[in-house]
Design a protein that fits this description.
Blueprint lengths: L5 H7 L5 H14 L3 H11 L4 H6 L2 H14 L1 H32 L2
Helix pairs in contact: 2-6, 3-6
């Protein structure tokens, strides 16, 4: 999937007040992970799972750390997939924050 875009964030904010929208955007900005940083970490420190730890994948991070990236195989695949994984994490995080902001209004 593609990076979480402005239109997608706007659709998640439907039905929110201006204050809720501001809260949503500030929390999302604070919690989202940068896909470029994830890629750089995968390229430089992928053997140790640092890229997966950065995006919140602790199990995959430990797996890569203990097996040194399954002896290089997982590391190479992560060079191509880490940005997509980061987008998925950011999308899930945005949906979680939107639900939390809506619930706090009730």
């Amino acid at each position: 999937m593609a990076q979480v875009g402005i239109a997608e964030l706007a659709s998640m904010q439907q039905g929110m007040t201006d204050q809720q929208k501001t809260l949503f955007m500030s929390q999302y900005a604070a919690e989202k992970k940068d896909r470029t940083i994830a890629l750089i970490l995968a390229l430089l420190l992928g053997f140790f799972g640092v890229d997966r730890f950065y995006i919140g994948g602790t199990r995959a991070g430990f797996f890569k750390l203990l097996t040194l990236g399954l002896f290089g195989l997982v590391i190479v695949s992560d060079w191509f997939l880490i940005m997509e994984f980061t987008d998925e994490i950011n999308r899930a995080k945005a949906q979680e924050i939107a639900a939390r902001v809506r619930a706090s209004a009730k």
